[in-house]
Write a structure and sequence with these properties.
It is a single chain. The protein is built from three helices and no strands. By secondary structure, it is mainly alpha-helical. It starts with 12 loop residues before the first helix and ends with a helix.
C-alpha cells in the first residue's frame, strides 16, 4: 500500500529523503503492530488528540495567577 509521490512536489533532496524515511517508518510500525497503514494513521491521530486534550487541561490548572493564589493560601 505505498503511495507514489510526484518528484516535482518535493523540491529538496532532504525533503524527499525525510518523506521516504517517514513512509518506511510508518510501514515498519504498521507491520510490527500487524495493522494496516490507514488504521495506524487514524490511531495516531486519536492518540494525539487525547494527549493534546490532557495537556490543555493540565496547562489550565497551572496558570500563574491560580498558582499564586494557592501559594498565598498555604502561607495564611
Amino acid at each position: 500500500m505505498s503511495r507514489q509521490r510526484d518528484p516535482e512536489t518535493l523540491p529538496f533532496p532532504f525533503t524527499a529523503a525525510s518523506h521516504w524515511l517517514a513512509g518506511v517508518a510508518t510501514s515498519l510500525l504498521a507491520r510490527s503492530l500487524n495493522m494496516p497503514e490507514p488504521l495506524l494513521h487514524v490511531t495516531g491521530s486519536l492518540v494525539f488528540a487525547q494527549v493534546h486534550a490532557i495537556e490543555t487541561r493540565a496547562a489550565r490548572s497551572l496558570r500563574p495567577a491560580r498558582l499564586r493564589r494557592q501559594l498565598l493560601a498555604w502561607f495564611r
